[in-house]
Amino acid sequence: MTNPRSFEGRPEGAFSFRQQLKRATADLHRRLETELRLVDPDLSLDRYRRILECFFGFYAPVEAGIARASSAGPALGLPLRERAALVESDLLSLGLSRRDVAALPRCADLPRLSGTEAIAGCLYVLEGACLGGQLIAPALYERFGIARGSGASFFVGDGDRTKARWSVFLAWLESLERAGARIDEIVASARATFLSFAEWAERLDDSRRASEGATPWST
Fold first, then answer.
1. Cα distances (angstroms) measured from residue 172 to each of 84, 117, 136, 158
2. According to DSSP H, which parts of 38-182 are helical?
3. Calpha distance 160→147 (Å, rounded)
4. Please, is 116 exposed, middle or buried when counting C-beta atoms within 10 Å of its C-beta (0-12, 13-18, 19+)?
5. Which of 53, 70, 86, 212 lies in the 20 to 30 Å Cα band around 218?
6. Distant-in-sequence, close-in-space partners of 125: CB < 8 Å, separation ≥ 6
7. CATH number of the domain at 54-203, please?
8. Alpha-carbon span 51 to 60, nearest angstrom
């Protein structure tokens, strides 16, 4: 059995914890990005709306799961952000009613979220998405003229404070490592979160194509 504080049998310290997470999740991260294609030059407003519906169907239940798990155990020591509400506000800005949003499908095949390590791995994916949002938000404004409050609040996120939030998160993650958290469990949870999100996006896309005879995420 490998040392629980090492990754894939490498000696502890061979890679930083952050590098371990990035390397371990790179394939699934690419899979999700390939499915969503948020930076494609042919992105339409209609397809963007459907992508937001996909995000809401994942973020709403996974954030609820994190809240339940964190309240059932020791204090995390990290203030949580609720991003599903931002997605909902964007969908409302783009023409959906609150009843429409409430009726959207929710992902049921979620990563396991019991214990600090599982929560940390999941948050690595959710918090990291905010960094990507800083690249996506300007493209959305240039293409569709939408910004915070008009359909791009989720990707704008914390705006200029995003990097500071990411630094706080990384410091918290490293504090878990120093306290003896099981690195392999955090890595496994991060991979499980990426996989759950990618499969959710793929299922929605397959279902829509089957009903409409359309190409992936097309108009």
1. 22, 12, 26, 18
2. 45-72, 84-93, 98-102, 116-144, 153-156, 162-178
3. 14
4. buried
5. 86
6. 25, 190, 193, 194, 197
7. 1.20.910
8. 14
Spatial separation of the C-alpha atoms in residues 35 and 216, rounded to whole Å: 8
Distance of CA 88 to the CA centre of its chain: 15
162 token code pair: 């995003």
Digit-coded pLDDT (tens) for 28-69: 999 999 999 998 989 999 999 999 999 999 999 999 999 999
Q: Which residue has the tokens 């991260």?
A: 29
Give the 3-state secondary structure of residue 214: coil
**Residue 18 φ then ψ, to 5°:** -65, -40
70 Cβ contact partners less than 8 Å away, ≥ 6 residues apart: 76, 80, 119
**pTM exceeds 0.70 for this model:** yes
